[in-house]
Specification:
The structure is a single chain. This protein is α/β, with parallel strands linked by helices. It is built from five helices and eight strands, in the order E-H-E-H-E-E-E-E-H-E-H-E-H. The protein has a six-stranded mixed β-sheet with strand order 2-1-3-8-4-7, with helices on both faces. Helix 1 links the parallel strand 1 and strand 2. Helix 1 packs across helix 5 and helix 2 packs parallel to helix 4. The longest helix has 26 residues.
Length: 204
């Protein structure tokens, strides 16, 4: 078996609108301190993405071409959420909201002639069923919100042949510290890696 460490890239987003602290990036930094401790053969790489459609497009392509990860997990902040949300799929069209530079994608779409929906290879329902971290509830969703997170996810699923995930986290609060969110991400992402390994194990 190949002993080269494989790479998992986890991204968070920078500030946007009135949100000067983005909980997604704070949670990713905490995850980086914790590591993906159950698997020494996985190298964790983290990256902050700007809430900027054009820059995100370039960075997603670079991630997949340069790092060749086995999985990319994008973390976004849902300002109204009280739970962690595992997004099963991404949509190609209806991106009407402007990014931090006031830009909107042409015709509101990610990829001209791209499929309407791309679904992740990770079963979010299965991951949610197994999740257990005290003080945190996890749900799964099929609508990632048609903003820069959803746009990023679509491009990543396209370039990564489905080996991407999007997780929405709540804002930081008394109930949701960066540390707690980081711990929850560690558990979820380790489980996603196990989920993706299952077909390999069954075949061997």
């Amino acid at each position: 078996m190949d002993s080269q460490p494989s790479c998992v890239v986890v991204t968070g987003f920078g500030p946007f609108r009135q949100h000067l602290v983005n909980s997604s990036w704070e949670a990713v930094k905490e995850l980086s301190k914790l590591g993906l401790n159950s698997n020494k053969n996985v190298e964790l790489r983290i990256l902050q993405l700007p809430v900027d459609y054009r820059e995100v497009k370039q960075k997603v392509i670079r991630i997949w071409e340069d790092l060749k990860p086995q999985l990319v997990v994008h973390i976004g902040m849902d300002t109204s959420a009280k739970v962690i949300i595992l997004e099963q799929c991404a949509k190609n069209r209806s991106y009407q909201d402007a990014d931090i530079r006031g830009f909107r994608p042409a015709r509101g779409e990610c990829l001209p002639d791209g499929p309407e929906v791309i679904v992740s290879e990770v079963s979010m329902k299965a991951v949610r069923k197994r999740f257990a971290v005290e003080g945190v509830e996890v749900i799964f969703s099929r609508d990632a919100g048609r903003y820069v997170c959803d746009y990023t996810y679509y491009l990543s699923l396209h370039h990564g042949n489905g080996y991407a995930a999007l997780i929405h986290v709540p804002r930081l609060s008394l109930w949701f510290s960066a540390r707690l969110l980081g711990k929850a991400l560690q558990v979820i992402i380790q489980d996603m890696l196990e989920e993706l390994r299952k077909p390999e194990l069954e075949a061997s």
